[in-house]
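Re: that backbone. Tokens:
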């Protein structure tokens, strides 16, 4: 299983469940950015979500995603999975509460480590 990880607001995820489809922020493109490594998750969380409450980390099985996935570089030597189109909810196999530490920074959730190896 190839795992894609995505940080989102719990409210967005709950709305997706109600409508049975998830569309992430466009980030000025047609798709939305996800992460594929623990370090990417931490870098994204600490850069864009510092000290934010009410977040969840979606654990996505890329083999079940119906939309097109492209691995594209944000930085020269690092590729991020970029999903073009809506995410079908049956591709999400786990949702983890993603809370910052008291100082506002994030650490990678231990409960996902088993799936990553």
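Recovered sequence:
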């Amino acid at each position: 299983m190839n795992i894609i990880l995505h940080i989102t607001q719990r409210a967005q995820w709950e709305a997706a469940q109600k409508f049975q489809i998830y569309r992430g922020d466009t980030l000025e493109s047609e798709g939305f950015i996800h992460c594929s490594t623990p370090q990417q998750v931490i870098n994204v969380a600490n850069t864009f979500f510092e000290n934010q409450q009410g977040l969840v980390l979606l654990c996505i099985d890329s083999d079940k995603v119906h939309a097109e996935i492209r691995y594209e570089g944000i930085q020269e030597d690092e590729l991020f999975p970029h999903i073009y189109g809506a995410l079908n909810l049956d591709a999400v196999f786990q949702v983890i509460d993603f809370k910052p530490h008291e100082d506002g920074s994030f650490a990678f959730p231990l409960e996902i480590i088993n799936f990553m190896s």
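The mean pLDDT is 84. The beta strands are 3-9, 31-33, 55-61, 68-75, 78-84, 92-98.
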